[in-house]
């Protein structure tokens, strides 16, 4: 892996020159000598392969993030948020059908707590995915700096070897492997220099120049709550920069895809965007239900008790985590407005219909899930196309740089035939000398 085939460059040795007036030369050469070993690489194929590698790594990182989001949200399914929401509205309908039933009210409270738990667990799952991506980003930055340092050290060695007239082909192979690794990580491109070194460019700036490497650093909170605090982007948002603090914006490479998934909610398809949707769902459910519930009356004394919120939020935490059921007593559930007495279920019926409205929480959540599915499918197709292009470029690169068995066999046959031709000449000369020395003058004896 990483080996580039080499070829021995041969040069014929001229005949010995003489300065004597009547000296003559036989006109034949003195054979050949090896003047060097050519490294048969194609810089255009190398550049194409690195470009396609960076694009493929970027699209694959985005597709992986979206696929993980789909796994976390588990929609559509019987255990997803949408199914739990429907159970919540159905429980309100049951209360509407039997507003005087304590069992129906108790079941409603249990279903409501289940919805709260479901929303909170979804948030925590997204937070776990964000933490994983944050750790991946940190590891990728470490890999980038390590590879850049390795290329800088190899540049120094190669320049020294070439200056002394030696062959640095194996060192160049090692350097190309590191350059391809950087292409996959940060979309790096390379520029060969006349002294044998490579200048590695990232986002238009040199990451490696000669024997000097510039470090890349990642900043931002290691906690999701701090990194995506609204309004986005947060002051603690995850970002890349050079060692001197200059912002670094990547468009290719796996690191670009991972950082995109960590950044603010304005970037569709990111983990932060999904988190905002879960928080918005919690707020939408609470505000929609509370607006109707507060207008109803409870069964608690006095019967005219109104203005009671069904949901509440814990201050200082994310909406999805802070959502709680404010009511613990079934009698505090406002099923009606008091006009119909204990059998009035108009308020419960109105709440049960919220899920069917075009602007309700269910519709908003479904729109997000559909958008996520479409975006994920598109990202997967883009990743497949990019990977196909990368595989084609890699195949062309390998076909040029790898050892060709057929070519090597052809060269061996050529050398064999040349040896056989030279052997035939020597045999002819040997037979001629044998005839001249051993047989001339023996006629008539």
Automatic annotation (TrEMBL):
Flagellar hook-associated protein FlgK helical domain location: 66-311
Q: Which InterPro entries match?
A: Flg_bb/hook_C_dom, FlgK, FlgK_helical
* Keyword entries, A-Z: Bacterial flagellum, Cell projection, Cilium, Flagellum, Secreted
Query: Which Pfam families does this chain map to?
Result: Flg_bbr_C, FlgK_D1
Compartments, as annotated in UniProt: Bacterial flagellum; Secreted
Q: Keyword Secreted: yes or no?
A: yes
Q: Where is the Flagellar basal-body/hook protein C-terminal domain?
A: 398-438
Q: What is its main location?
A: other
The record's comment on protein family reads: Belongs to the flagella basal body rod proteins family.
NCBIfam families, sorted: flgK_ends (TIGR02492)
Q: What is this protein called?
A: Flagellar hook-associated protein 1
Organism this protein belongs to:
Demequina litorisediminis
Report the gene name. Answer: flgK
